[in-house]
Amino acid sequence: DRQTLVAVLQFLRRSNLRESEEILRREARLLGDDLGSTALSPAGAGVLGAPGGDADSAGGGEALLSRWSYTSIFASSFRLSYKLLLYANAFAVGGGIVVEDQPDVSAVLSAYNQQGDPTLYEEYYSGLKHFIECSLDCHRAELSQLFYPLFVHMYLELVYNQHESEAKSFFERFHGDQECYYQDDLRVLSSLTKKEHMKGNETMLDFRTSKFVLRISRDSYQLLKRHLQEKQNNQIWNIVQEHLYIDIFDGMPRSKQQIDAMVGSLAGEAKREANKAKVFFGLLKEPEFDVPLDDEDEEGENEEGKPKKKKPKKDSVGSKSKKQDPNAPPQNRIPLPELKDSDKLDKVMNMKEAARRVRLGPECLPSICFYTFLNAYQGLTAVDITDDSSMIVGGFADSTVRVWSVTPKKLRSVKTAADLSLIDKESDDVLERIMDEKTASELKILYGHSGPVYGTSFSPDRNYLLSCSEDGTVRLWSLQTFTCLVGYKGHNYPVWDTQFSPYGYYFVSGGHDRVARLWATDHYQPLRIFAGHLADVTCTRFHPNSNYIATGSADRTIRLWDVLNGNCVRIFTGHKGPIHSLAFSPNGRFLATGATDGRVLLWDIGHGLMVGELKGHTDTIYALRFSRDGEILASGSMDNTVCLWDAVKAFEDLETDDFTTATGHINLPENSQDVLLGTYMTKSTPVVHLHFTRRNLLLAAGAYSSQ
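Now predict its structure.
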């Protein structure tokens, strides 16, 4: 208001801050001339005359924001500067320019300063509710998205201003109207009944610092704006401007089904801008080398009396990606380790196996071999299987890591240094001679962690094993000596998952501290820290080309991060519970995600769109895996079942035109039973891991539970 403005100008003059005074004078005139009758009420920052929410007014908001930040340094003794900043921030909401930061708790809470008559909050909310429920069907679904964030902010405002009885009454009257997938959040909210409770509460802070994103068509938004102006409902308008980010799009409003598919995360939907960056989802070109024919191959062919014409076919397997994929990243975009001779040998073996691979499909489903951990009283918490399916590892709640050989070949350690010095290093079988037969056994137990082991991952070359634990460390173990080589300390809280890159050397970890970290085996410190999730990072996955990492979180979103620069290039919302499993399709185009809501969601990475929803499980999905050729998707759940899905059918005929991409009008198939090929029950064993062998046999693992 004018008096405060004059007071600030006098203060600046007394302090000899002429330049700031000039800026403030200019801004005051700009506010008066360009923005019509603007009133900054003493109770809080809200624009009553011209609510700026359209995209074209956002530029002005940004300019205001940058200029005011300069003035506000000097005017800090007045509440005006805070109001002007809030005003500028609110002004930028609708258009897509919002300066996001992570302020400290007291600053965050101060935004809930008394803003209106506490007795009228119920009236305001029920008035808006009545308006939305009576609006046309096409707008009702979109505007109903406002109920939940407004409910939370109005409740928190009442609690912060110590109107405890009003807050309780408000909560009891309206909490039943909220969507079922917000029940867990509402349970946390109901425990915040005093101002003191809000100080250290993470949920509270998340809600306050990250603007809740709503995607609404321009028509619906104009309808809301007009209603709030006519009713002079400044209380709700202030909240819409300060705490919500309204992503306005031109076009038809979305249906209830389309909205329900996309909402449910802790901070609303992803902004459309978040999924616009280019992603190189193609595969890197494989190095070329010839695949020699084995003696046994030749014998096998002669026995059958067929001519030896298999070689070109085998060669074609080796050269499946000789042509550069147009969507692939440049080969040297991130430094990848050189192939060792043993790696090349393994690739040759892989190609030979691939030649004998079973082509899967609706008519040819894989056999499933289930590894049941019996009497696992230690509590099985993680499983991994090597790429060549020769070893299986279990992480346990008693802080041990146990490695089994699942082939007749036993696990052996390297001999001691004294014994190694006696070996002839030039002999052909030197790799055999260095192994100590006395140590041969089916099982090796690795001790070192001081808490439950939540994640395990074998390196592609089978020389190393990663494990992560509640103790906050990630450990790297040698599978030559079965000892711990390094403990990586970076997370301060439990680490929920870790995974090696498909090329080795790099690995990723994610934990309770809400960040994922990228490491290299020869660095003590992380190379990248991926921060952005609002809750624990529960699972991590490398893209097949190793240039990207997907993370799933308890904030009910999936993010895709660029390894090169650490940027978040995709945010996927739609799950209604914490994410617990991720799987990239072998061609790198698609991502499948599973969560506690029992749904598998399918995403097109290039377009940043949800393209499928698979319903068949009744409990948390802990394991997802595509077959080697990508025809079948297998999902394993806590409901003791493995489901097989027709991935080819799920991804065909995708509507990914520009309009869909721009507005998010996704049309998911009504019935996911069409792509469900089979459901397989275990006796009483939750499925915690799935793995397709090189020949497409499906291996599953879990611990038998007697309940």
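Residues 32-103, 295-321 have pLDDT under 50 and may be disordered.
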